[in-house]
Amino acid sequence: MATAVAAPAEAVQQDYNSLCEKLREVSALGGISGLLGWDEQVMMPDGAAASRAAQQAVLAGVIYDKQTDAALGELLSKLDGPKESLGQYEAAVVREALREYQRTTAVPKRIAKRKAELSSEAFQVWVKAREASDFGAFAGILQEWVDLVKEQSAAIDPARSAYDVSLDEYEKGMTSARLDEIFVQVREGLVPLLKEIKGRGKAPDASFLSGSFDTGRQAKLCETIAKEIGFDLTRGRLDVSVHPFTGGAHPSDVRMTTRFKADDLTEGLTGAIHETGHALYEQGRNLDYDGLPVNQAMSMGIHESQSLFWERMVALSEPFSHYLSAHLKTAFPELKHELYPALNVVRDPFKFRVEADELSYPLHIILWYELEKGLLDGSVAVSDLPRLWNEKMQSYLGTTPKDDAQGCLQDVHWGMGAFGYFPTYSLGAMYACQIYQEAKKQLPGLEDEIRAGQFGQLRGWLNEKIHKVGSLYPDGDELMRAVTGAPLDPAIFLQYLRDKYSVIYQL
Amino acid sequence: MATAVAAPAEAVQQDYNSLCEKLREVSALGGISGLLGWDEQVMMPDGAAASRAAQQAVLAGVIYDKQTDAALGELLSKLDGPKESLGQYEAAVVREALREYQRTTAVPKRIAKRKAELSSEAFQVWVKAREASDFGAFAGILQEWVDLVKEQSAAIDPARSAYDVSLDEYEKGMTSARLDEIFVQVREGLVPLLKEIKGRGKAPDASFLSGSFDTGRQAKLCETIAKEIGFDLTRGRLDVSVHPFTGGAHPSDVRMTTRFKADDLTEGLTGAIHETGHALYEQGRNLDYDGLPVNQAMSMGIHESQSLFWERMVALSEPFSHYLSAHLKTAFPELKHELYPALNVVRDPFKFRVEADELSYPLHIILWYELEKGLLDGSVAVSDLPRLWNEKMQSYLGTTPKDDAQGCLQDVHWGMGAFGYFPTYSLGAMYACQIYQEAKKQLPGLEDEIRAGQFGQLRGWLNEKIHKVGSLYPDGDELMRAVTGAPLDPAIFLQYLRDKYSVIYQL
């Protein structure tokens, strides 16, 4: 009597162990690549640019070979299927590894090569096109990216839309159907709220945050705050770079950077707290699953939720302003003003995404999202972009750019082939808001602790609920369900904004 | 009529190009490993030690796989033999690559693995043994190293002595027969000279070099000098580390470090100039052969010759002392003494190799050399080491250590399996001396230039003769012949020391 016999538990375990060994190698090499990237931006002498690019290319080749190793594919085939003998985390390791393997092996080498070339060509082309405000000079590259991303998406999964396949790279499990649902709601809530604020709101005074602030003292202040929030300097470094970022080689080796402007206190401060949020997520990973895909960041949106949690939900809150005030008075005794409303001033006019505040930011994102989806589904032509961009800008944010440099050339994401990246910024903001509301429910006295500069309980809670969980869940909604009991709900975000700004702007 | 047909020139060129591609990959990965090593000592947070070790191990495995790739071996076999169609540098690429391939593939994995384990075990064992001055606690590890190195040498080349095969790792082409010849001559010249200096020499005053010197000002001074000698900060960095070293990722990315002591001016200063010499050698490589073995450092001895050239031949010279004096007076106005004799004081008693001056240093080296050769040829038993070490110390340097911690446990080289490393320090000093005498002949006005702080002509000469030449020649004697017209001649070194110290010590 012959029946299909499941592989015995020991065999599964053996295959699983072999799989982990291979995955840990890829992870270690990825960590090395991360360190090289950090070094390049923070330490490397200018003259080493060419040799470093060559080193990164060789390393990328080694990683690619290991990621597409046929033996890895065989192990994954054997482990794909019912995994009763594997625990929840182990099953997620297999799921994530399989997803990664399929995405990587599906893309022909020719496309991968052209993507790498195009990325390095595009940046300079974009810089020049923006300088000259000449969209036409960038249009050719953009068209090639659109075609290439469509081709790549078809190779990965011809059954899904090109946009959904590309989006999945940045926000696992997210779809444009779900984004449409979320973003329509957000747009319909925010456009009138912004108009109301602009029309009858009373803007608080924030002029004292511009002026002249010693950057050394700013850096010291921000290091103190980063450490008090919980950045662990025995497992990370804090340096200065032209563009602040958080990178590094491993959860035990997280490299975060900041930058400070002498004439603007807010940017350095909120930037440092933002990066601290990213860094806590990285340092907080569960080392029981070190080097395995279940231990990776969940998605770009969840990563951003951790930075925005600290930057916006905590640092822009009323309780935090008391803690911050005390520190600021030591560093800059001349500052005796009320911080909370000033830090939350709405930055009208709403021209640039990177300068936007939490109220207008999502409308920028929705604009980019609608256009990039249109580019990939064919409903938007590259040549129509400048006009459509300007129309949407006027409609959502009530402003029209003076030229394309300040319009559809203001961001470079598409020039890097990153279609589906933009939405993650606002998903992050909404995740962060929903998580914070839940934290307030679960942690009584949270706001008093924040006021007193005690962040340990909150950090521990985030660590348990989000940092250590890594990529255990298949998508952000599942993680939100586990943390807050419900999938992402933009109504929570909209309610938070209306409540907050009604008070600050005396609506 | 069949005759053996030589491969046509195009086929050779094609194989050569394929070879270069593979070699450049290995070189790029080696550069990455170099950067990780620098980062570990200069930047890395303590908590990252374990993850970094794992990353380095994975990277070492990748490099090993590429170094022992059968396809590389096949290309080398095809290219080994008459190479009329290859130029001089191209032929040296094949020669060096073949040598490296044979050495790497000859060693069984078991030995390579045990070496790596033993290296990481040994350091802690040695530290503890030295703390307790307990040679017995270290003897077991040392015996295992002796056996392992003998086994490894037999695997690489059973026709040569174990010592010669091991020595070849550090000083390509050197043999113990040649070292015996050189070192006997040096010993017989130096032992009486040292006795003479100790007996009737008049020691100059150097007390003013000890005291209290702001380390920040020392660092600034040394950076200025390093830059004026020619260290290029657009293709390198200068940082501080516990143990000064020169490393990095590429000739365009050389990372040198220094350290300064508040109570001792000489150590930081000579250390910085020493590392500058290493750094110039690294930065000066010929980028036409970038990433190929012909472009690697010739040997440990030649590398050391470049650091000692600047540290001793230039910086300890009378002309340089005028240049240095001018800088020192700016940094430390209280220093108005005569520098030249003070910097050249003989550091009696001669207890520690790392503290030794140029006169007593070679005798330390000869002691270690004689013993390590004896350990590998069986004429010295591990258990006899402490006694033999002390006897030689008394005979060559007229002093006996108070215990084994200050005796045969003072250096860790053997604990790392480095048999044949010691001689390179003194070979470096002798190469440097011979090269300097030749530079004086070929560059008229050299000493006036040094006095004026003009190092450009000398640096350019070294660059042409040595830095750019890399590993073109098969051994140090050949390089010396090309640069100075004769193989290494210890008589030049001895004459230099006698002339110099007769004046300083008024013999």
From TrEMBL, chains A, B:
One of its GO terms (molecular function) is metallocarboxypeptidase activity. InterPro entries: Peptidase_M32_Taq (IPR001333). Signal peptide: none annotated. It comes from the Eukaryota. The active site is at 275 (proton donor/acceptor). GO terms for biological process: proteolysis. SUPFAM superfamilies: Metalloproteases ('zincins'), catalytic domain. PANTHER family: CARBOXYPEPTIDASE 1 (PTHR34217:SF1), METAL-DEPENDENT CARBOXYPEPTIDASE (PTHR34217). This is Carboxypeptidase Taq. It comes from [Myrmecia] bisecta. The lineage of its organism: Eukaryota, Viridiplantae, Chlorophyta, core chlorophytes, Trebouxiophyceae.
